[in-house]
Amino acid sequence: VTEYQLLDPTNELEGMTRPRAVRPTTLAGSTIGLLDIAKRKSDVFLDRIEQRLVERGFTVVRFMKDTNTRTASIDLQQEISRQCGAVIEALAD
Amino acid sequence: MNAGVPVTIVSQDEPALPAHLKPFVVDDSALETSYAYGIETVPTLLRVDDGRVTGQVVGWSKDEWQALTGIPALGVQLPASRPGCSSRSLDPDCRDALLVRFEGHRLSSRRIDVGGLEDVMEATFDRGWSDGLPVVPPTIPRVIRMLAGTSRKPDEVIAEVPPDLAPCTIEKAAINAVLAGCLPEYFPVVISAIEAACADEFGLHGLLSSTYFSGPIVIVNGPVRQKIRMNSGINALGPGNRANATIGRALQLVLWNVGGAKPGAIDRSTLGYPGKFTFCFPENEEDSPWEPLSVSRGFPAGASTVTLFAGHGISSVVDRLSTTPESLARSLAANLRSLGHPKLVAMFDAVIVLAPEHAAVFSEFGWSKQDAVAEIHANLNLAGADLVYGAQEMEEGLPHLFADFDKHIAIDHQDFDVRRVADASLPKLRHGGLHLVHAGGNAGRHSAVLEGWLSGPAGSQLVTREVEM
């Protein structure tokens, strides 16, 4: 028996599971993007990664968010997607 | 009827009136007509022209009944004047049922049935709607009563709330305001707080997902403070006042339930802080020597506003002895030097909640708010040599070169004619990063600092919005 009828305070959105982008089986010939989230010391990590990738013959393109406090803009996401076959994003601190 | 005036008798509980009146009687035992016309007293005589109520008399009043009907001889036995009785539509045992029956269709949120064997309070916890403290179960009548606090329609979208970027309608805001324990008259403040929190310059997504302590702090100005009986005096930042406590909580519950900002999921705060349950207070404008925060923010005097600050705290400033503004400004500045970390500058804004005894030190010497802010800033220029990485035997600090500053250090290195930070003097607070608000009890020579999250265009900026009155 219903004693109370309450109203749902949540956004009532159903979580949607989307398949991850297909991982490349090889990075040969790929341009690799390095995304700096604009937080301190991101560059320390990414400089080292870039060095190692270049040593192995990869082409590397660096990207940077405007600020770590906001999500990456659609423009930036599309630019990375357009130029790169894979991307490595650096958190920091 | 005999006078040729078309009459309808609406009966709440006596449809069996004398037989000769029967053709004119509407059986309103279901109270639909009474509710539709908002009847509070029986009898109520309504004059209806073209479907619109153009006049009414409440209770018995022979003269007024005759005047409204235009029948001079109407009801010679009517009492000259006698109050009526309360309408059944207001009876406590049926009022809520009427709200559900006649207003429930305005609400589109999912209905959650709670069975008789389930404790309704536990049900709200079980469904994850609570911040950890008990909430008021959001029944349909309670939500409808909350909606009466605004003229805005239930399906109107206030904002898209991060991190889920889910639309928060007036209805969802009302449900969460009920959960938080708000009264309907608080609701316009809650709505404006949601608007302000979701303004782009407030940076809510980052604030909610940060590992830092902060959350939104709501500061209220203008006549709405008195209208809803907020407390700006003793214990202004603490418990004891329903409006202070529940408005801040309603905003947090909207972020929680609509935005989806739950600890351990998107909310990654390392420690959190108790203000994330609620943090809302009004400025004491009446006793302040200065213009209120709302006016400093560009709103006209007399406007009711909410101002959102992304911060945490409080940290205390004790100064029992200063009798000059210069001395007190130095005390306040000295305490601000440790904001975030003593070696970090121009990253975190601050709001000083200046208690009356401290405010009086400035006002007795005729200082304006701007004078006080300028003097505090003047005492917060720090030697760069003490701030760089490793200085004072602490690794935390600033890069050695201005060129290596990131966007969170809101200093334009072109303002300096040297490259090395160690050769410069740097402001602890960015320009525009210090705000003064007046609140608290009359006794006590101490003030409070609200410490900001990452501030400025790359983080969060103060946002002020007007409140519907």
Please tag this protein with its features.
heterodimer, A: 93 residues, alpha/beta, three-stranded parallel β-sheet, 26% helix, B: 469 residues, alpha+beta, seven-stranded mixed β-sheet, 14 helices
Protein described:
The complex is a heterodimer of chains A (93) and B (469). Chain A is an alpha/beta fold and 93 residues long. In chain A, 26% of the residues lie in helices and 25% in strands. Chain A has a 3-stranded parallel β-sheet with strand order 3-2-4, sandwiched between helices. In chain A, β2 (31-36), α1 (42-55) and β3 (59-64) form a beta-alpha-beta unit. The radius of gyration of chain A is 20 Å and the shape is elongated. The model of chain A has no long low-confidence stretch (mean pLDDT 91). By secondary structure, chain B is of the alpha+beta class. The longest helix of chain B is centred in the middle third of the chain and has 16 residues, at 242-257. In chain B, the strands form 6 sheets. In chain B, strands 10, 11, 12, 13, 16, 17 and 18 form a 7-stranded mixed β-sheet that branches. In chain B, β8 (157-161) and β9 (166-169) form a beta hairpin. Chain B has helices at residues 32-36, 62-69, 92-103, 120-126, 140-147, 170-180, 187-197, 204-209, 224-227, 242-257, 293-296, 325-336, 356-363, 369-378, and strands at residues 9-11, 25-27, 41-42, 44-49, 52-58, 85-86, 111-115, 157-161, 166-169, 215-221, 280-282, 305-318, 348-354, 381-383, 425-427, 434-438, 446-454, 463-466. Chain A binds chain B through residues 1-13, 38-40, 66-71, 93, and chain B through 100, 107, 109-116, 118, 120, 123-124, 128-129, 137-140, 143, 161, 164, 166-168, 171-172, 175-176, 179, 203, 205-207, 210-211, 253, 257-260, 406-408, 454, 458-460. β1 (2-7) of chain A pairs antiparallel with β7 of chain B, so a sheet runs across the interface.
